[in-house]
Amino acid sequence: xxxxSSPGTLPARExxxxxxxxxxxxxxxxxxxxxxxDLGPCVVRLHxxxxxxxxxxxxxxxADNASTDTTPQVAQRLEAELAExxxxxxxxxxxxxxxxxxxxxxxxxxxxxxxxxLSTDLNALLPLVAPLISGHSDLAIGSRLARSSRVVRGxxxxxxxxxxxxxxxxxxxxxxxxxxxxxxxIRRDVAxxxxxxxxxxxxxxxxxxxxxxxxxxxxxHEVPVDWVDDPNSTVHIVKTAxxxxxxxxxxxxxxxxxxxxxxxxxxxxxxDPRDRDVQDVPxxxxxxxxxxxxxxxxxTLFYLVLYSLFREFSGSQIANALAxxxxxxxxxxxxxxxxxxxxxxxxxxRHQAQGLVVFxxxxxxxxxxxxxxxxxxxxxxxxxxxxxxxxxxxxxTVLRFLLFRAWVFPDRDGSARPEASPSTVVATHTPSxxxxxxxxxxxxxxxxxxxxxxxxxxxxxxxxxxxxTTTTRFRAGEAADGTWRDSTMQLQPVRPHDTEPGDPR
Length: 505
Hints:
Distance between the termini: 43 Å
Mean pLDDT: 75
Number of helices: 12
Structural class: alpha/beta
Strand order of the largest sheet: 3-2-1-4-7-5-8
Strand content: 5-15%
Order of helices and strands: EHEHEHEHEEHEHHEEHHHHHEEEE
């Protein structure tokens, strides 16, 4: 259901122009930790591939997070030799921290990353970013588990990967196929709103970002990849798996309790045909009917089970009242979230109170039916009672849907929606050319400057209250002395704990 008003026709998502050769369209980040041997060949190979095949200007950013070997010196040498390469140094470990910091400061409209071992075949890079350049998709991921993917790896890693994705599907209802493939891309305008909501700074960063994006209705494009396992990988499998399971629990709990402000992300980035005003088609009616029928069917089964249990130690009227009361509370909560798309805790008490009024009407119908049955037969069979209750509940269900749609959860162009809470503050980001440290001494200002503003899809507007626009602006990574350090964004209501001293690599 729509939570804000919109014109009849929204502008389509924009394709990035092929001009402005001096402005990097793609920024490929390579997060590294103690990769002095592999970094040089990786960057040279990637640079050569992009030079030959990528039709836009590009940049390669080496994000070194707290390496203790000669990796920083290798990165600086590559930056001096190749014009499109930049080096970036963080003093704390964590792949997620490195990606969030560099992506937040980048001025490129398309942001990507890949692992330093280049396990993924580079021919998949252009198909990965093409849907983002065209405006078709918001994020793109490489998938090793797609049917047409060709993967070479051991049985142990294959088992762990598939088990992890099964856990995501079962616990978080994730529909993307491969959360941890080190080959992903995102549009900058999407990242500016999505990244402040991602808490993890380690290996779970990818999964959390994708789950939040999917739950918010953003479009995720999947690309089958050719992938060869790196036998010399330094990832601590057991520790990483444990941290990932903790992350699954944390995100699942936040989603279940409505703690995540996903309304920030719900379709703010372009045209959606469901948002258009089409004559003779009631907005959202078909979807609401399907959702209400599914919830109603499950609620009826739940009600009948409860009635049978309560009937063992009470009369039919008391059993009916108790079963209907419990099932009505569950039914209102389920319809609130699944049928009418209301997220968060705002207005939940009022909705339950109105739902209890609807429950009273249903109670009157079912109790009246039982009273009529008892008047007609002094000792009706249990199966007869159930049949009468089913018929009465069907009539009450139709009335319940009409009351829910017109009274409890009315579509009033977002004015009655609890998602539009005055506490919601949307962070906007004004990108500027990042300053990179070279040689550990003087900051380096990249020579490229955008030739006019880069095209963007219709963005999320800052929240306005009382005529005053509330906007949080930030520039990640630059300290007061002009050097670059860890710049994990601190935005409310982002959760505060953002350090992982035991983050494995």
